[in-house]
Design a protein that fits this description.
With 783 residues, this protein is of the alpha+beta class. Helices cover 15% and strands 45% of the residues. A 16-stranded antiparallel β-sheet has the order 20-21-22-23-24-25-26-29-30-31-32-36-37-38-39-41, with no helix packed on it.
Length: 783
C-alpha cells in the first residue's frame, strides 16, 4: 500500500512539473471492490479543495489521511488534465465488515473464548486480508510461546452481501506438536569460556530466581540467532575466520529433542597490522587517527572496527560534511594472521543550513518547537546537534513522531532542515475512586494539559505550558491542587511555576489543615541536572483535637515517678510559614513512571522565617536518592535512601507538629502503622498500662530495597526490605536503633491509576509502642 502510494506521488510530481502546478477544478471519488464509499465522508477527510494549487505533497498527505481513517484497504489518486486546470480523482477500496463472529477451527490447545480474545475481531469490525493476518499472528505468537513452533493458520473470507460489503471469516489452525530443545552445549570453544557466551546462547543468569523453579527451554528457530550471536562474540575478539554450527542431537520420541550442540571452529586470532585511510583530502591522517581507539597490534575486533567507522563518519558529519561515510576494508597479511584495516572515506559535501522549517505542527506553536533546537540557519550542518535537537523535540511529549529531513535547495552547498512532526493528544481527564490503607476510601478527578497556552483562546493549547487541576476527596483526606508551569519564562530556559493548594488530613488524635501557594523558578544545569528556587506561603492549623491529655516525651520519661518533659496536642498553635527553598535534582531514569534503569537524586535546603518573617523559624536540609539497576529478563533492583534534618531557631523554640518528620506506612517503612515509627509521647492510663502517640522528630534516615520482576504487561511482582528511624533531635542518628521489615508485593501499572499492594513482615521495632500494619495498599507510582 505504501509502495503504491509512493509510486503514485512520483507520477504526480512528473505531471505537475509538466503542467506547472495546475489549479484543482474538480475532485471526484470512485470506489472499487465490495461495499460502499461515501464521497462526502472522503471529502471531509481530505484537505485539497477546488481552487487549490495541485501539489504532490498535498496529494500524498490526503492519501495518508484517508488510509489513517482505517476505513479503506487501499487508496489511489490520479490526475486528469482539464482545459483550465486538473481533475483530482481518489479511488478507494473499502474494507469489508464482519457479518458475524469469526469461526475458529482446529484449536484443541486453548479454549475458543481465549482465541477470540487474542484475535480481537468481532461482528461489525472492519477487516481485510492484512487485518486478519495481523490478528492471526497474535494467536500464533501465543502458540510459539507454548512451544508449538510449527503452528500455522489459513483463513477464508466469504462474501455475504457484496453491496453492503459484509463477509464471514473462517480461520483454520494446524497446531502441530510441541517441539523444544532442553539444553544447549558448547564444543570447540577453547579461547572463550562458555560463561562468557551466556548472552549469545540465550542462557538465563545463574542468579535469576526463575531458573531455580523452571528450566529454560529453547525453540528451533532460536538456533540461527544463537549461531550468529556466538559468531559475533568470536569476531569481536579477533577470530575472523570462526565457523559456528548448531545442530540438534539426542532425540526423544518423534518430535521432542533434548540437546542442541553448538560446535565452534575458532580459526586463528587476527591482530591489526596497520590502519590505513583512503580518500582523505580535507583533514590530515594524523588528525583522524587521534579520534579512533584502534591501534596496531590489537585484536581485529569487528565491533571496534565498526565503531571506528561510525566515529569517522560522525567526525565529518559534525563539521558540516553531509553524506560522509567510512567503509572499512580488511586486507589479510600473507605472512601472519593479521589484517590491515583500510577505511575508504567518503568526505561528502560541506553544507550550511539555509532555513529551518517546522512542518506538521497543527496545534503546537512554531516557537515551542524552535526553542528546543540547538542548530540555527547559517550554521554549518552538525550531525550530532541535529540529532540532539530531534531528541529534544521528541522529549516534549507533544508529538507521535519527529523526523529530520535535509532538503535540497537551489545551491548545492546549502540545505533546508525540515523538522516534520505528527501531533498527538496532550490533554488528559481522569475520574476515579479507590482505596488505600492510609486514606481508606477516596475519589479523585484530574484535568491536565501538557501543551497548554494561557493566552491561546479559544482552545488554550499549543503554547508548551503545563496545567494541572486535581481534587481528591476521601474519608481521611481532602486535597485540592492547581498548578501551572511555563517552561520557557521570558523565552529563556527558565521554568516558572505557580501552585495553589488546600489539604485537610485527619489523624487519630487531631486534624491538620494546610493552605498555601508557591512560586518557583528553575534552570537546567549541565548534564541531567536542574536547580529550582521556590518561595511558599503556607498557613497550618491543628484542629479537631480529640485527645487533650498531657503526655510525656518517651525519651525523657521516668516510669517510676511518672515524670518527664510534658507535651499536649493542645499546645500546638496555628501558624503562617514563609519559606524559601533551593533544590538540586539529578535524573537519568529511562522512564519517569516505571523506570528500569538510571538514577534520581535530590539535594534540598529550605529556611522559614528569620528574614522572611511570619510565625515559624526553622530550616530543613536533606537528600533523597534512588537507583534502578537492570538485571536479567526485565528484572530490576531498586534502592532508595533518604536523610533529612530539621531544626528551629530564633523565636521558634520547638519544631511545630506540622513540620516534624515521620516514618511508617506505604511510602516509607512498610509493615508499620502510618507515621508510627520514631519519637513518641506516652501517658499512663491505668496502673502499668501506657498509651503512646507519635509526635515526630527532627532527624530521619530511611532505606528501601526492592527486587522487581515483571509478570505480564502492566503487572510486576516485588520483594522488599525497609529500614529506618526518626530521632527527636537534629543531627542525631543511631544506626543501632532502626526499625526494619521485609515482604512481598504486586504492582498494577494501570495508566493514570497505578496500584501497589504489599504484605509486610516486621523484623525489628524501634520501640515497644510502635504498632504494625501488615497490609499496604497505595495508589500512585513509586516516585
Amino acid at each position: 500500500m505504501r509502495l503504491n502510494r509512493c509510486i503514485i506521488v512520483l507520477v504526480f510530481v512528473g505531471i505537475l512539473s509538466a503542467l506547472g502546478a495546475p489549479v484543482v477544478r474538480e475532485v471526484d471519488v470512485r470506489h472499487e471492490g465490495m461495499g460502499k464509499s461515501d464521497a462526502e465522508y472522503i471529502k471531509a477527510h481530505t484537505r485539497i479543495r477546488v481552487g487549490d494549487d495541485l501539489s504532490s505533497s498535498a496529494i500524498s498527505r490526503d492519501v495518508k489521511l484517508l488510509l489513517d481513517t482505517g476505513q479503506f484497504s487501499n487508496v489511489k489518486a490520479s490526475v486528469e488534465e482539464l482545459d483550465d486546470g486538473a481533475k483530482l480523482i481518489f479511488t478507494v477500496k473499502p474494507k469489508w465488515r464482519l457479518a458475524g463472529k469469526p469461526q475458529i477451527k482446529g484449536v484443541d490447545r486453548y479454549r475458543q473464548r481465549k482465541v477470540h480474545r487474542w484475535l480481537e475481531l468481532d461482528k461489525g469490525d472492519l477487516i481485510d486480508d492484512q487485518a486478519v493476518g495481523v490478528a492471526v499472528r497474535k494467536v500464533l505468537k501465543e502458540y510459539r510461546e507454548d512451544l508449538y513452533s510449527d503452528a500455522t493458520a489459513t483463513w477464508d473470507l466469504d462474501p455475504v452481501d457484496k453491496t453492503m460489503g459484509t463477509v464471514n471469516l473462517s480461520i483454520s489452525f494446524d497446531e502441530g506438536d510441541i517441539i523444544y530443545i532442553e539444553n544447549i552445549e558448547m564444543e570447540g570453544n577453547v579461547s572463550i569460556e562458555t560463561g562468557d557466551l551466556r548472552t549469545a546462547l540465550k542462557r538465563p543468569s545463574p542468579f535469576n530466581p526463575l531458573r531455580w523453579f523452571k528450566k529454560k527451554r529453547y525453540e528451533h528457530y532460536q538456533l540461527a540467532d544463537i549461531e550468529a550471536g556466538v559468531r559475533r562474540v568470536y569476531m569481536d575478539h579477533g577470530f575472523l575466520d570462526v565457523k559456528v554450527e548448531a545442530a540438534v542431537t539426542g532425540e526423544q520420541g518423534e518430535q521432542k529433542h533434548d540437546i542442541a550442540v553448538v560446535t565452534v571452529d575458532e580459526g586463528e586470532l587476527y591482530n591489526i597490522s596497520e590502519i590505513l585511510f583512503d580518500g582523505i583530502s580535507i583533514y590530515p591522517e594524523s588528525e583522524l587517527k587521534n579520534i579512533i581507539y584502534l591501534r596496531d597490534g590489537q585484536p581485529a575486533s569487528i565491533s571496534g572496527i565498526e565503531e571506528t567507522a561510525r566515529r569517522l563518519q560522525a567526525y565529518y558529519g559534525d563539521r558540516g560534511y553531509l553524506n560522509a561515510g567510512a567503509n572499512p576494508v580488511l586486507i589479510p597479511d600473507e605472512d601472519k594472521p593479521a589484517v590491515s584495516v583500510k577505511f575508504m572515506i567518503r568526505e561528502g559535501e560541506l553544507v550550511t543550513i539555509r532555513n529551518i522549517i517546522v512542518r506538521g505542527n497543527t496545534r503546537t506553536k512554531d516557537k515551542v518547537v524552535r526553542r528546543e533546537l540547538i542548530v540555527y540557519p547559517g550554521q554549518v550542518y552538525n550531525q550530532t546537534r541535529v540529532k540532539r535537537s530531534e531528541r529534544r523535540i521528541n522529549n516534549l511529549g507533544f508529538f507521535e513522531t519527529v523526523r529530520v529531513i535535509p532538503q535540497n535547495t537551489s545551491s548545492d552547498d546549502e540545505k533546508d532542515l525540515v523538522f516534520e512532526v505528527t501531533e498527538k493528544r496532550t490533554g488528559q481527564f481522569m475520574l476515579g475512586a479507590g482505596f488505600s490503607s492510609v486514606d481508606n476510601l477516596m475519589g479523585f478527578i484530574e484535568l491536565s494539559q501538557g501543551n497548554f497556552d494561557l493566552l491561546g483562546w479559544p482552545n488554550f493549547t499549543g503554547g508548551g505550558q503545563k496545567l494541572r487541576l486535581r481534587a481528591q476527596v476521601g474519608s481521611e483526606r481532602q486535597d485540592y491542587d492547581i498548578s501551572f508551569t511555563e517552561p520557557w519564562f521570558l523565552d529563556r530556559r527558565l521554568s516558572l511555576g505557580f501552585n495553589i493548594y488546600s489539604r485537610d488530613r485527619s489523624y487519630d488524635d487531631y486534624d491538620e489543615t494546610l493552605q498555601g501557594s508557591s512560586i518557583s523558578l528553575g534552570k537546567a544545569l549541565p548534564g541531567p541536572n536542574r536547580i529550582t528556587f521556590r518561595y511558599s506561603l503556607e498557613a497550618s492549623e491543628i484542629n479537631g483535637i480529640s485527645d487533650t491529655n498531657t503526655y510525656y516525651e518517651l525519651d525523657s520519661y521516668d516510669f517510676e515517678t511518672d515524670t518527664g518533659v510534658p507535651y499536649a496536642f493542645t499546645d500546638e498553635e496555628d501558624r503562617i510559614k514563609s519559606t524559601l527553598a533551593i533544590g538540586i535534582r539529578h535524573d537519568t531514569r529511562n522512564n519517569p513512571f516505571v523506570p528500569t534503569k538510571g538514577n534520581k537524586a535530590r539535594l534540598f535546603y529550605s529556611i522559614s522565617g528569620g528574614p522572611l518573617g511570619f510565625d515559624t523559624d526553622l530550616y530543613d536540609v536533606g537528600i533523597n536518592t534512588t537507583s534502578y539497576i537492570p538485571l536479567w529478563f526485565g528484572h530490576v533492583f531498586n534502592i532508595r535512601s533518604k536523610f533529612e534534618y530539621i531544626e528551629a531557631f530564633d523565636d521558634t523554640e520547638a519544631v511545630p507538629l506540622a513540620d516534624k518528620l515521620f516514618l511508617g506506612g506505604g511510602r516509607s517503612l512498610r509493615g508499620f502503622e502510618y507515621r508510627d515509627v520514631g519519637p513518641k509521647v506516652i501517658r499512663e492510663i491505668e496502673d502499668g498500662v501506657y498509651y503512646a502517640r507519635s509526635y515526630g522528630g527532627q532527624s530521619l534516615f530511611m532505606v528501601n530495597v526492592e527486587y522487581i520482576v515483571p509478570i505480564v504487561n502492566g503487572v510486576r511482582f516485588a520483594t522488599f526490605y525497609d529500614t529506618g528511624n526518626v530521632w527527636s533531635e537534629a543531627y542525631k542518628l543511631d544506626m543501632s536503633d532502626l526499625a526494619s521489615s521485609c515482604g512481598i508485593g504486586v504492582r498494577f501499572d494501570m495508566p493514570g491509576f497505578p496500584i501497589r499492594i504489599d504484605r509486610a513482615f516486621v523484623i525489628n521495632y524501634d520501640d515497644e509502642y510502635t504498632e504494625d500494619d501488615k497490609w499496604v495498599i497505595w495508589i500512585g507510582y513509586d516516585n
